[in-house]
Description:
- The structure holds 2 protein chains of 2 kinds.
- Helices cover 55% and strands 1% of the residues of chain A.
- By secondary structure, chain A is mainly alpha-helical.
- Chain A has a domain at 72-111 and 120-232.
- In chain A, helix 3 packs antiparallel against helix 6 and helix 5 runs antiparallel to helix 6.
- Chain B is mainly alpha-helical.
- Chain B folds into 2 domains: 1-49, no CATH class; 56-251, Cytochrome Bc1 Complex, Chain C (Up-down Bundle).
- Chain B has 11 helices and 1 strand, in the order αααβαααααααα.
- Chain B is globular and about 80 Å long.
- At the A-B interface, strand 1, helix 1, helix 3 and helix 4 of A face helix 3, strand 1, helix 5, helix 6 and helix 7 of B.
- Strand 1 of chain A pairs antiparallel with strand 1 (49-51) of chain B, so a sheet runs across the interface.
Amino acid sequence: MANPEATMLRPEPKQTLTGPEKIHTWPHLVAKEFLCALLFLVVILLYSYYVDAPLRELANPGEPENPAKAPWYFLGLQEELVYFDPWFAGVVLPSLIIIGLMFIPYIDFNPKGNGYYTFGERKFAVTTFSFGFLLWYVLIIMGVYCRGPFWAWFWPWEKWTLAFPTPPPLWSLPAPVGVLLLLAYFGLGTWLPARRWKDFYQRLGPVKYGVTMFLLLTMTGTILKMGLRLGLNVKYVLQTPWFNI
Amino acid sequence: MFPDLKEIGDKITQNDVWKSIFRHRYEDTSRNRTLQVLSNVWLHIHPPAVTKGSINISFTWCLGGLTFFVFLFETLTGVLLMFYYTPDVNRAYADMLDLSNNAIPLGRLLRNTHRWAGHAMVITVCFHMLRVFLTGSYKAPRQFNWVVGVILLVLTLLLSFTGYLLPWDQLGYWAITVGTNMAGATPFAGYQGPFAELFGFTIDNDIRFGLLGGTSIQAPALLRAYVWHCIGLPALAGGLMMLHFWRIRKDGFSGQL
Lengths: 245, 257
């Protein structure tokens, strides 16, 4: 049986002359956690007292909601359904986002900026990630506040109506053009930056560089496709008998 | 004549019963502060001492800890809701009305807090990820913990998503319809996705069918959402949270300023 007194002989936190200053978790950290939790409880209880959680009529499989909106955090993906087929907007795109997020620590070779806020030391990483994060929420805001019946665009201050103008007809690029365009986009999009920023390419190596650029070009490509659809009424860049992009 | 507080205090604390529960005294000494963390099963998730810069609110915004707290809050309110909710298409909506109308004491507050805190958890976990990215806290040696965090983010979304169907109202029903129809478009494995015929996937054996337990959202889908929401996903998330926190404990907090 261990002597309880023995557990009292633990060393005190080590203070080295060179290392960062250490403080006790109790009470410094525990107190902050406790206050954060209390603050959260106050806010959530007050909010819940005044604002009721939504509850509509009993579910009726025979009477679809119009628009039927996914939960708000998926509305960015539902918004992408306007520009892409479901296999991409609903499955491949979110999968790429998840896998891409997981890849981040393994493709970011920059040893700087570990454990502190910095923009100057990680310009590319911070810009890219913040842009993607912002894009996700901009799409969500579009989906939540600007989409009405039949997913038609309504500004938040506009009244929803079924008398919106008929959308213009859509057209698709011929398959050979689409193949060339996609090859050029991903090919040149990968090759040109490697030439322009040779140092960046060499430090990453071909595999990590390829993965980084593929993820980046997919993100920007998604926006470009939105532009093509909204600006030029392009339905598909690439149309095949099996899938369309 | 006032009682001698110190004497009363000693009477309470200087006996075998007290000492069998509390292994150290409470005087504010460096040793007791350390023991307060080390000899407490819940607190020893923390290291006994941390670098000063790593716990600044302006560094962490308390988002990771807050997310965990919201998870605990959801677990508590969720279990309470389970006493009053039946995952049966003929009863679920009526149970929701009972909660909302306070037919169950504090039912409305219970349901509201569970719902809003669920949304809050999605927000806090997203911003925790943003914070960890912006401080580069995923860099060596914490790369793998970032991966665990991404899985926890996905599980948080799925937890919220499965809860969405449970009220069995029009909002949840059609939101889940939209969401699960996406699964039907999965390449190779969804009946409407590209190359579905390659492996013989149809509406009654594809990935969407597996999620719903049927070709449309009916009683089996409600039960599946309920079991995933209350048992499967919390268990997975809980297990991964242990891993997530344990690795923070082993690798140390980031933020060395």
